[in-house]
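Ticket #4471: structure export looks truncated?
Reporter: QA, pipeline team
Priority: medium

Steps to reproduce: submit the single chain below to the structure queue and open the exported record.
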Amino acid sequence: MSIVDNYQLKKYFRPLQELVDHSNRIGSGKDLSKRLAFNNSTNHTTELELLRISKTFNRMIDRLEKSFQHEKQLSRNISHEIKTPLAVIISCCEYAKDFIDDPMEMKDAIDTISEQANRISNITSKLSELSKMDSNNQKLDYENFCLNELIQITTDEVLIEYESLNKGITVNLHSDENIIVHADRIMMVRLFINLISNSVKYGTNDGTTDIYLVKKGNSMECTISDDGIGISEEDLESIWQPFFRVDHSNPNSTGLGLPIVKNIISLHGGYINVESTLGKGTTFKFSLPIAT
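Actual output as written to the record:
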């Protein structure tokens, strides 16, 4: 009886021991690709419970593995984005040494160095902002304010900033009434600057961007739609990833604007969706809480 009992105990607890062994291997950082394999053969209560535990364990490891892969990819992207402007700065410094007595050449070199240094500063600033949001260290300063007014002011600032592009894009705000939201005003400015700027930068000449505000219960829904270059279907899944750029020809784009937009919406408890057709335009739709 003792031998049989020991055999049965080992049989039932073998999956649990496997779980412990896998946990130890993963905990030591050896292999995140391993998963606990357990098949329920008898429908015994103990086996059913262990099967549930093993599935939960595997889902947890899936999330961990994806998280580590994301961090590795992000590190590679940061390295790539910083390496290019640094190389330009170093090259310009070496070039300037040969033209110490030539003010014009020196000025050109210094202007280029300043431009690339500002690019690095912009990248690090946005990365710091993303990091705070991802770690939930970003504190929101909630207040009630009129979203219509904020959008109009932000639109005017964006159009002035990109006036040199001479694209002749018109931005229209559509709302039946003034909508008072309960949100972080500074965060909302960042959100609309990013979205409206994109519609201007990637819009067609003499194109139009339409912004619609609609109340829905205790929240409001905002739609920003343009008739610009659009985004291909295969790129839509990637636009929320840091450093991803649809248009690689734009040297001023960091690929961090849309990830920041998504995090701002998430911090406010809302959602954001995007629809786009290549060559026809893009529509962003998101929600925000309104003042009650």
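Status: closed, not a bug. The export was complete when the record was re-opened. Leaving a note from the reviewer for reference: Residues 69 and 102 are 49 Å apart (CA to CA).
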